[in-house]
Amino acid sequence: MSHLDALQAIVGEQHVLTGQDAQASLTDWRERYSGQALALVRPGSTEEVAAVVRLCAQHRIPIVPQGGNTGLCGGATPDQSGSAIVLSLLRLNAVRSMDLDNDTMEVEAGCVLQSIQQAARDADRLFPLSLAAEGSCTIGGNLATNAGGTQVLRYGNMRELTLGLEVVTAEGEIWHGLRGLRKDNTGYDLRDLYIGSEGTLGIITAATLKLYPLPVAQCTALLAFASIEDAITMLTHARRTLAAALTGFELMAGDCLADVVRCFPQQRLPFEGASAQLPWYALLELSDSESEAHARERFEAVVSEAIESGHVLDAVVAESMAQSKALWHLRESIPLAEKESGKSIKHDVSIPVSRMAAFVEDTNAALQQAFPGIRHVIFGHLGDGNLHYNVARGALGEDELLALQDAVYELVHQHVHAVGGSISAEHGVGQLKRDVLPRYKDPVEIALMHRIKAALDPDGIMNPGKVLTLP
Ligand code: FAD
Ligand code: ZN
After folding, report:
1. Stated pTM of the model
2. 247 and 313 co-located in one domain
3. Residue 433 resides in a domain
4. Residue (of 106, 95, 101) closest to 208 by Cα position
5. Which of 28, 317, 387, 454 has the fewest CB atoms inside 10 Å of its own CB, making it the most exposed?
6. What is the Å distance from ligand 2's center to 426 Cα?
7. d(CA 350, CA 381)
8. DSSP of 326-340, one letter per residue?
9. CB 345, CB 399: distance < 8 Å
10. Which domain holds residue 49?
11. Ligand 1 atom closest to Cα of 157?
């Protein structure tokens, strides 16, 4: 029996796709990576995933797990050899159960993030993970990349929102680790090992997630700043005065918002005159558990104090849910406007907040000196010390920019490293940062990662060539 016949016998003929039918799964969202595959295989249950993995292990067929294919590091794209299968989890899309007394829900890996948020809301609960790709990314992909997004400041990243996992190991066993426990000190934490492993250790098929109370009221404002230092002063002030009620603080360069308004003319910046021309803006969000009136009073007090102190030059406080959505829509449209504007060089870095202003100033200056004419596209989750410090072509042609890519990466990564930062805050490593990772990580740490990989994936079939270089 051929490999394709054997795969069809497990998942059904209509779920083994080749040629044109598999094409969309072979290129990443940014259209930076493209590969070939034996087939796109779409199992319908954990048992089918396990049977596919056993078949692949027996024949040493590499497996590239894929969820919504929105990842930004090429992690879900196969190489050019055509020897791998792409294994889509999209058919495993059931919310299996909710335990409201325990504040948990059990979901399958292929559930789209937005459908999980909705299922939680329908049960009068909050599942807080939120990011611009939430309409198409899957919880399996969120787990595999330990995704972050806009609510990490209050609720933590994917790892902190997860209590248990079900995993198909690289040898095709099923690990039933779907525990709904907030405390469990019974040995090594395999859950945290699989979270963030980008499909290189096994396949996540289901998870037990934490749920939170839905906020009673939320307030949103867009704040305008003369400098990044002022934005950081505001963050510190908001943290101190709002404490756990502070649920969002998103920094955006004025240029990013100008791009959004240019690419999507139905959107508009709610400022006029000089306030519409400032270098930095931030979206501030408060979530309150008491009442609308309580939320508003607290929020307006914090914003007015900041304006009086001079750190915030202007502010627009959303008066309705529709206005709040419009403000968030501006923020969420930045990556889309960036994509519309052509290829760019993306950095997803984290830096201690205390060193952020100096990092941006020094790195901007060094980039302009080394590559005159490039354009900075800077936004991100300031509250987490996470910037999307991107570089666009500006006065250069697209090919000219791409020719500079490695040199730009190196310059930025060296500046990040010098201030004790990380070259990947939330997007992962994939193939994009695989080769440079050893330059910025402790050699012992890299060696231990190779040993873990060899122990959990002895045949080297799980997403080979991602995160770590091939042995
Ligand atoms: P995919 O792209 O399909 O896969 C990503 C990686 O996970 C690959 O290595 C793949 O092999 C592996 N994988 C997928 N499913 C499984 C599984 N079930 N088991 C094992 N491995 C698996 N990310 C953030 O963290 N924060 C953001 O704010 C954010 N904003 C974004 C905005 C836009 C517009 C876009 C396009 C992306 C954004 N991302 C962000 C990146 C991306 O959406 C997230 O990384 C997301 O978690 C990926 O989910 P996915 O289902 O699309 O995964
Ligand atoms: Zn982000």
Report:
1. 0.96
2. yes
3. no
4. 106
5. 454
6. 7
7. 9
8. HHHHHHHTHHHHHHH
9. no
10. 3-88
11. 25
